[in-house]
Design goal:
By secondary structure, this protein is mostly helical. It folds into two domains: 60 residues; 76 residues. The chain contains four helices and no strands. α1 packs antiparallel against α2 and α3 crosses α4. The longest helix has 35 residues. The radius of gyration is 23 Å and the shape is extended. The chain starts with a helix and ends with a helix. 1% of the residues are buried.
Length: 137
């Protein structure tokens, strides 16, 4: 951990002493390097937290692994269904730079997943309220 912190301090110091480019269009390698380093630190932290939590969960309760695999399997099926339903068609009245078909397909997939998650949240709220009203009679 100290080595990662030292690398971060060196990158920040290099960016500070290098300074900003003279024109905004000029490349600035230190800012890009710092952003990439931050990205990899966050990704590494998330992966490490997930692995450690799964290990602790498996050690404390073996049945929780089956539950986790079921939830992950459901999420994978949901993403595959959303990908299959995504049209990936060209946007209407878009005058910007051309976008690839793959990007359009992934964008549609994310929109479908967002809609399903939103509907699921509303359904969970409604279900919770109905169950609480029935139990509190």
């Amino acid at each position: 951990m100290l080595a990662l912190m030292a690398i971060s301090i060196i990158i920040v110091a290099a960016g500070f002493f290098t300074g900003l480019p003279e024109r905004p269009t000029d490349p600035n390698g230190t800012v890009d390097l710092l952003l990439r380093w931050t990205e990899w630190m966050v990704i590494g932290t998330v992966i490490l937290l997930a692995v450690v939590n799964i290990f602790i969960m498996a050690k404390n309760n073996k049945k929780s692994i089956v539950k986790l695999c079921t939830i992950l399997g459901g999420a994978v099926v949901l993403v595959l269904i959303a990908y299959a339903l995504a049209a990936g068609s060209q946007p209407v009245a878009y005058n910007g730079e051309p976008v690839t078909d793959g990007t359009l397909k992934l964008t549609d997939t994310i929109l479908i997943i967002t809609a399903i998650a939103g509907l699921g949240a509303v359904a969970a709220i409604v279900y919770g309220e109905i169950v609480s009203k029935i139990r509190n009679k």
